[in-house]
Amino acid sequence: MKKSYVPFALLILVCVATLFFSEVPGTIITEGISSGDTAWMLMATAMVLLMTPGLAYFYGGMIDSKNIIATMLQSFISMGVISVVWVVMGFSLAFGESIGGFIGNPTTFLFFNGVLDGKPWSLAPTIPLALFAFFQLKFAIITPALISGTFSERIKFESYILFICLFSIFIYAPLAHMTWHPDGLLFQMGVLDFAGGTVVHMSAGLAALAASIYLKGDKATDAHSPANIPFVLLGTGLLWFGWFGFNGGSAVGSGPLAVGAFAATNTASAAAGLAWVLFDVVKGKKPSALAFCIGAVVGLVAITPACGFVTIPHSIFIGVVAAIISNVVVDFKNKSSLHDTLDVFPCHGVGGMVGMIMTGIFANVALNAANTTGNGLFFGEITLFLAHIKALVIVCVFAFGGSYALLWITDKISPMKVSQEAVKHGQDLSQHGEKL
User: Fold this and answer.
1) CATH number of 295's domain
2) What is the pTM of this model?
3) Residue 373 pLDDT > 90
């Protein structure tokens, strides 16, 4: 069978399988469901999905003009691919019955059976299980899309699709299970990740680092001017807006916890955007729109694991520190041989690591009853901080090593690198037959 037929054949196979594996749901549970919480979570879920088109504009504006469509499509196609993977088995792998604290049983919610009529998730008891499942889907969608920033201009479209499928199943789902399932390995260690600093940003950033090393390539292709700064500004605005659902929605309710996460999110992003611009000025650069946008996103990344556990003033500190550290790492990357086209590792990987460490420093049990591990290092306790340092090592080894292995497997099945001729003419035309 020709390779071009394989993806279509697999989709048809999934389509046919639904006829045999789908079950008619029983009585839909309504007892204990809060209409207010449900309304907020429906809105938050939609807001998080909006982040992926926002990311498409954010990345698309930064890239060379002959690769804008291809770059943006890598984000959009994730909405299609991961949505199907999630319904078939992704949700089961992330939130199904635990297998050793590492991954969920793929048969627990296979083809979403037992989701519409299932009991609410134990940590989200006031919203329907199906709503929780689709809220989590939006996180699963944007995570591989984040990685696409390091692939821009140099990976074949079919190889990208294969990789994000493998990444979703073998990297994202286990990390989500370990971190957010009550029986998960990291959850049992007492690790706190309110909205995905570990699961989303560190995993994407470390996969980007693995891709930078695996794909290598000509550093000269990094030297390009952003094609459309207004696209970057628009993307930043959509991301910032959607992030209120990303972080505020992770309270899985419409109470004070969601408000605190919302406020910390805005404050950290604002502080980080300012810090990035001002730090650039100190280094002799002009204050640019691009600098503020990148800094604001780094602040959003860093506050993600911490927003439900730290005070609003501490979010300023987190945003500023994350922006400065990521800025320094970007400079280091530019002087190295790493080819990370849109700085995914310095911004998302490093930003997520900073956020994870800062959570271990500034978390306080008074802000969130779900924090049973203890206060952070800033308040004189060390248990939580040490748990986060240990988890940092575990996640780095797993996400980087696993992603590198998946890149190798993908490359053997479907060679990843585009030809030099395709690079010359751009992927919009060579991969998709389209142009601006």
Assistant:
1) 1.10.3430.10
2) 0.95
3) yes
